[in-house]
Amino acid sequence: MYYIIDPHVFKRIVTPYVEAAHCFDWTQLKILGVDGQSRTKFSTAVQAGLGTHFNITPRFDLSLKAQYMWHLGKELHVEKNEGRWEIQEEKNPGW
Description:
Elements: E1 2-3, E2 14-30, E3 38-57, E4 60-71, E5 75-81, E6 84-90
């Protein structure tokens, strides 16, 4: 988080900020049953957002933010194909 203005001054009602982050995801899917598939996948994502703290007291604030995450790797998901559940890999889901 990067505060646009000094966050240590309580006299203002709002304290806006921007944020950026990178995360790592480990996905593990298993379909239960006799011939159930199992797949694991490691991927990454980046995040960005804007937000603000609404200062109620010097020790209490309410925060509101909007954040978006963009996945950089392939994603695993489960779909039903011809009456049978299958684990499928989606390439570059992006937005």
